[in-house]
């Protein structure tokens, strides 16, 4: 079991290096403190937005020779790995009430585009077993193309991207550069488009605060399970504000509730419009 966990961790590193594009290049490589959601045949790293899945193919009995048997086993393993990756994608929560599978059921266009991404998913690792079988691991970004397909249309987002983040020397002393929400102990589940509400149900953070470009390329929020790692993540800059969530809402338990007084404090800070608009948000989960 220990070797299997170690192998998955190494593969997640490969997933970031080989699959991640410019939008996530600034983030740290996956570590044991990232929030990784495990599934039977794959996993999702919710900090850097990478997914991996594995499949095993057996050599056919009617192969002409060993080389042909191994090649056919590899092709079969790749098909199975991509099928498992599809199941992983279908289960991803988009917001508090919708999964990727919900979108696929309602639109043939979505199905076609997601299958296209799957066909182009990268082979990250190939392991040849002593019995002739082959295990293949494939990887794909959740951000970028897939986000563009499944996230709400532009009218649900802020229309324009905010100005570029100021350089450290340009910041007002003590100005906040991001937001870290501690949601540990509440049974929160990660989602592509989480919201942050106050205790009166008024939205502090969501698609109306972020341009669609930012949401697609870097995700609405990063997730972590270690507070120090979250606080030092480049996503939230050098001086993030921290706040503890007091409740969770939504059918999928992905929307966070913070104290109204804290929400009002954030709303009155001029710099919050920039860091929230740039999706500089990290969420701490168990």
TrEMBL record:
<feature type="signal peptide">
    <location>
        <begin position="1"/>
        <end position="25"/>
    </location>
</feature>
<keyword id="KW-0732">Signal</keyword>
<protein>
    <submittedName>
        <fullName>Uncharacterized protein</fullName>
    </submittedName>
</protein>
